[in-house]
Amino acid sequence: MKTGEVIKAYRERMNLSQEAVASFLGIKRESLSYYENNPDGRAEAPLEVLEKLADLFGVDLADFFEEDSNQIKANLAFAFRATDLQEKDLNEIASFRRVVKNYLKIIDLEKSYDS
């Protein structure tokens, strides 16, 4: 899967519209659509957009570039899924997930330090 296809899969997994995610990102819906549906892969989303999406979806930045289709399916299967989210909820969700990701990284660092 290309990066745009992965973005689209996570967005759909969260039951979010392009409009809601684009608003969260501060970009036009057409830009998000272009990133998601760009067939030749030439128009990749900028890093700052990918970082915000990673926080929103609760994934690592590297997950957008995963090439193993089985791993992508596994990541999607464990992705957060919610219904009835409002646009105002997206910032809080992204902030919370960023805290969780940072906490997990600290735990991993402590484990490697103790080893």
CATH architectural arrangement: Orthogonal Bundle
The biggest sheet, with number of strands, parallel, antiparallel or mixed sense and barrel status, is:
none
Radius of gyration computed on alpha carbons: 15 Å
Helix/strand structural class: mainly alpha
The residue-averaged pLDDT reads 83
**CATH level-four homologous superfamily name:** lambda repressor-like DNA-binding domains
Order of helical and strand elements: HHHHHH
DSSP E strands, number: 0
Distance linking N and C termini: 36 Å
The total number of structural domains is 1
Q: Using the alpha-carbon principal axes, give the shape.
A: globular
**Poorly predicted sequence stretches spanning 5 or more consecutive residues:** none
Give the CATH level 1 class.
Mainly Alpha
Strand content: under 5%
- Provide the CATH topology: 434 Repressor (Amino-terminal Domain)
- Total helices: the number is 6
Name the helicity range: 55-70%
Structural summary, described in words:
- With 115 residues, this protein is an all-alpha fold.
- The chain has a single domain (3-114), classed as Orthogonal Bundle (434 Repressor (Amino-terminal Domain)), CATH 1.10.260.
- It is 66% helix and 0% strand.
- It is built from six helices and no strands.
Summarize the structure.
By secondary structure, this protein is mainly alpha-helical.
